[in-house]
Amino acid sequence: MTAMPGLGTSRLASPDLLRCVFRRHAAGVAVITAGGPGGPVGFTATSLTSVSAEPPVVSFGIGIGASSWPAISESDHVGVHILGEHQQELAATFARSGADRFGAPTRWRNGPEGVPVLDDVLAWLVCRVVARVPAGDHRIVLAEVVLGDPSGAGRPLLYHQGRFNGLRD
């Protein structure tokens, strides 16, 4: 650790520093899905961002070592699902390495463009992938919204301090 006048106890850049800082950042929880040659794939993402309204474009990050990356790297379309606070187990399932993400109790259907669409989410989008931008050991995927449904009921699921949480009033 390095002491810098007026800056408290600062640390040099490292993966651990980034993880420690972002544990303090509350983020919405999404699940990204795609159809793959071996069946549907998906993962939990806290990196979802609205990029542009005209045209409507979103982005998310995915590690190139992730089990979903090979399918996402080839998919023309992806599904974006905003999870509700009642879906902590679903978020954990899609975050867990080696989990049967689309087996019971996950409820889903084949949606437009062959994208798996999860049931009972707050909102979902089907998006056309327009770019995959290298960013260290990840790729930032830019995807243009094709269609979606924002009509799910409930409150959003958040990720903070390494745990899934609901909003507090």
TrEMBL record:
A Pfam cross-reference name: Flavin_Reduct
Signal peptide feature range: none
Source taxon at top rank: Bacteria
SMART domains tied to this protein: Flavin_Reduct
Gene3D superfamilies: Electron Transport, Fmn-binding Protein, Chain A
InterPro entries: Flavin_Rdtase-like_dom, NADH-dep_flavin_reductase, Split_barrel_FMN-bd
Keywords noted in UniProt: Oxidoreductase
Domain Flavin reductase like: 22-166
Designated name of the protein: Flavin reductase
Organism, scientific name: Streptomyces dengpaensis
